[in-house]
């Protein structure tokens, strides 16, 4: 009986932890643009310089030397980094059993504040050169015309599946980015 209770408690805590890590669940539109923003609380025992040192190291470790990196800028005075990069997203399987890949281009800023770190992801575009559906979509398309609820509800069939799957993969990746960045500030975990 103890093993069952212990297993249930472990499983429940894992579910709660997984749920807490999905901070991006919808696609926010600000002034007509898709902009994802999330604040990361940081232990107040760290000074602003210590926080920025962690952010700087994380930026170097995760992006310097990355062949998909477009650019990285460190601003020591503002205690921020700006990264332009790409990632290949593997979309969920569609109704025909096809798993497409798209390249997502994005830019993000991570800025140290008094209470934590502000993450802002913006300027998202996609490239889909390899798909048999590429005739349905331009080779480069914006997040605004692809992953917003308005864009998805405006189409049907395979177009809707493609946009929905692109949205799911984008949200998954951005949650991974958030979780990866959050971990550097949680020294006790």
UniProtKB/TrEMBL annotation:
Record protein name field: DUF4468 domain-containing protein
Species lineage: unclassified sequences, metagenomes, ecological metagenomes
Ranges where the DUF4468 domain occurs: 44-127
InterPro entries named in the record: DUF4468
Organism for this UniProt entry: bioreactor metagenome
